[in-house]
Structure of Adenylosuccinate synthetase:
Amino acid sequence: MPNVVLVGAQWGDEGKGKVTDLIARDFDYVVRYQGGNNAGHTVIHGDKKLALHLIPSGIMYEKAVPVIGNGVVVNPQVLVEEMRLLEGEGLSCERLKISCDAHVIMPYHIELDKASEFRLGKNEIGTTNRGIGPCYQDKAARSGIRIQDLLDEHVFRMKVEAALEVKNAILEKVYGKRTFTVDEICDAYLPFAEIIRPHMAETAQLLNDALREGKHILFEGAQGTLLDIDHGTYPFVTSSSCCAGGAATGSGVGPTAIDRVLGIQKAYVTRVGAGPFPTELVYPENGGEGQDAIDGDLLCAEGHEYGVTTGRKRRCGWFDAVIARYAAEVNGLTDIALTKLDVLSAFDELKICVAYECDGKTYDYFPMQQSVLFHAKPVYKTMPGWKGEDITKAKSFEDLPANAQAYIEELERLSGVRATIISVGPDRDQTFTRGW
């Protein structure tokens, strides 16, 4: 088994957790390399579904060592709550390793996140209000607090005191919000230190040693390509590198160690939060009309499109091949995992966006200019659906209806990447492979 990076190829929520759950058992290490508890993935344990936001899916398998890399931002309270949840289900967290260089989300980060979004009003970015962005801001400003600092009470107290001189002034004078004391934060966070201490590690060294021993690593990405801080629909993005390149910087493993890049994409597209979305089928409650509004509601209902982390109703739209090609390029995708194909069984016909039109110009590539993206109109290719045919029991590509096969082959042609994993239902066994 090669070393693999698993990335979202759309705006997140593509089903990365299910695919990770499927393939993680074949790896020795499963590594989260970016993001924080703004990401949510669902894993299956027996007959239960567990929602995790920080701990890698590899925790489910005795062979795999789950690693939280240096590129992740960690809320200690959320981390400990997840550990207790898993241990309550009989899953040991003893193997979990956490980078000493991972940054810590502080209470003032969360308050600043909420206050900033509230102040933006209708122009809000659509963050999860969990302090992710402000934590990454401090990391970039070289004023952040890391896991290794949390485990040294003297250093932690000193750094909190220095941070509060600035953060309290901003909270009070800019936003009119509550301030924090050093003792308040230390009393809340220091008890987590002794729980985390046995798990802290020099994870870059750990992973490179593993590679030298011939071990296999799965790098588990969060969010999606179009939410990447550099390559996404800025400013409506997250604050970390969601693309495959982030796996190297967020783990300390060199890029030449990566053999395959698996992009996860739904058979349609969804997005949570604000920002451009060319193929969006606007819901009736948001002003949508006609067949598009009906189709959008149907996609949401059939796909159960509500965020794991936020609970928000996701925006839904037809498959966007422009995005698919872009994701393939910026990630260097070698494989695609196509999820939620079964949701499309509710439609007589399907649409695929093959290009955009804006101001008389046609774009067959993904334009980064906001002025284009916000006004882009999709150019659709229509294909016949397979309405009424149950595909949830398919065990191979050949088991699918002819129209479903044709749809997949067209997506492959348009993106230039083969779908080697196909999901036809929510359960673990409702997935098959094609040369994976």
